[in-house]
Amino acid sequence: MALENGMKLLFLVCGIVSVAFVLLISVYLIIAGLPAIREIGLGNFLFGTRWAATAAEPSYGILPFILTSVYGTAGAVVLGVPLGILTAVFLAKVAPPKLAGILHTAVELLAGIPSVVYGLVGMILLVPAIQRIFSLSSGACLLAAIIVLAIMILPPVINVSETALRAVPKEYEEASLALGATKMETWFRVSLHAAKSGIAAAVVMGIGRAIGEAMAIIMVSGNVANMPSLTQSVRFLTTAIASEMSYAAYGSLQRQALFSIGLVLFLFIMLLNAFLNLVIKRGGKQS
Amino acid sequence: MNCLSAKRKFRDGFLKILLSICAALTAGLLVVIIGTILLRGVGGLTWKLLTSQTSYLANTIGILPNILNTLYMIMVAMVIALPVGVGAAIYLTEYAANARFVRLVEFATETLTGIPSIIFGLVGMLLFIQIMGLQQGILAGGLTLVVMVLPTVIRTTQESLKTVPAAYREGALALGSGKWRMIRTVVLPNAMDGIITGCILSVGRIVGESAALLFTAGFGLVLNGFIESLQSSSATLTVALYIYASERGETGVAFSIACILLALTFLLNLAANQAGKHLKRRG
């Protein structure tokens, strides 16, 4: 009996440890992120347009990072989401099972490739191409990052949309076909419409992946704290942390400001999660 | 079909072509990415690269330390994450009577899944290095990864535990077994392939992770023993790829590492699919 109770207690501890981790992350991010915000001032921090942490007169405005992250994510969504959804329609409805199987394996492989590998390929193929096309001094810019991100969000968008499309009741499609609609009209007007909450979830997941990505885009975005512009070297919220943390001195305001950037990023993701839960819950109610 | 108006016919054809183009584009992207990696990386994959370490004195580049570091990292992270994750899942599905606690843990694991890895790196550095006083190394990196892969282990285990029929449990209990004995002898063996799937997915995430390891495991390229590497800066394959590509300008080496990572990804996907198929056949 002692063993039985002991095991129960042990498993309970495991559960508590998992919850504790989430709490620890949130609490530590807030504790570590607040001092710099308090010292710099929330307005100056969030809306300051100049980041120069190591200048003689340091300035800690992260608006360039926030805007770059927002524009970069938006760009990736604009390019990647339509491509992903249309590929999902092809996989779920058009492709013969064998071809769908092969494509599916391809998408899985795409999902598993580590982000640094995307960065490396982008650095070698994309950056020189952009440099040549726009005759820039360096091709490492926001546009390159957007393209890399668009490719990286394809797998989650395709997988989740495909699942949603396959879950559309056959009766809907059969009814539409029986009314004289063509297959294409059925898929675009009926199936996509019926799967819209699943597809919305796919888009939100894509946004989450794009906004949190660091290593792939640090290699192609040039990493200078400019205000975002397509062909200029830029720095994202994530890459700001990744690139400065290694040389920011312990206890310096710069290091604390990097934690504050982490906090801002965390809040972005939490908002997105809350939104995702809302979308899924509403979709659940619909069906 | 010949009663369709010309406009509808045109639109139909257009959409069909559009769908095919999109699918072809997605497949094409993969072909280009994999082609580039193989084309530029395979040539550099020599025995010497795989079995030596980088040295400034001898002016050689080798990635043996990084291969070993990746293996150490998998070991350290899984040795901790597997028991804790499986334990938490067992508690949630077999013991927990409090629905609110279950929902809390599920909310927590869901939240953890969405957090970007750079934030894990940030908090890992804060928690394990600044507060607990560890040195940059496999131990601090591994602990950070434990937090990252816990949700995966918990969720896949929970799902496979749920597929074990209630009749099995009732049978065991009716024969007079205690709860733990029932779990050990009846439930866990039947949920094994789900747990294995979770492990494979977690290993995949550990192999591919880089942002969370930058400040926790560090950039070290030196060959260390296992014990030594726990507390000394050690770059895994992904971090080494980043170092060689961005800071050393050695893209050839970086592509060779990318080849190895690609092969690992492919094998892990294959293994996860096999385990998944096994699970489906039984369920």
Overview of this structure, please?
The complex is a heterodimer of chains A (287) and B (283). Chain A is mainly alpha-helical and 287 residues long. Chain A has 12 helices and 2 strands. Chain A has a two-stranded antiparallel sheet. In chain A, a hairpin with a 6-residue loop joins β1 and β2. Chain A is globular, with a radius of gyration of 23 Å. Chain B is an all-alpha fold and 283 residues long. Helix content of chain B is 77%, strand content 2%. A two-stranded antiparallel ribbon of chain B has the order 1-2. In chain B, a hairpin with a 4-residue loop joins β1 and β2. The two termini of chain B are 43 Å apart. The interface between A and B is large, with 84 and 91 residues.
List keywords for this structure.
heterodimer; A: 287 residues; mainly alpha; MetI-like fold; 2 domains; two-stranded antiparallel ribbon; 77% helix; B: 283 residues; two-stranded antiparallel sheet; 11 helices
The CATH topology assignment of the largest domain in chain A is MetI-like fold
Q: In terms of per-residue confidence, which ranges of chain A show pLDDT below 50 for 5 or more consecutive residues?
A: none
What's the Cα radius of gyration of chain B?
Answer: 24 Å
CATH topology of the domain at 68-238 in chain B: MetI-like fold
State the fourth-level CATH superfamily of the domain at 68-238 in chain B.
MetI-like
Helical percentage of chain A: over 70%
Count up the helices of chain A. Answer: 12
Give the structural class of chain B.
Answer: mainly alpha
Please provide the ordered H/E string of secondary-structure elements of chain B: HHEEHHHHHHHHH
Strand order of the largest sheet of chain B: 1-2
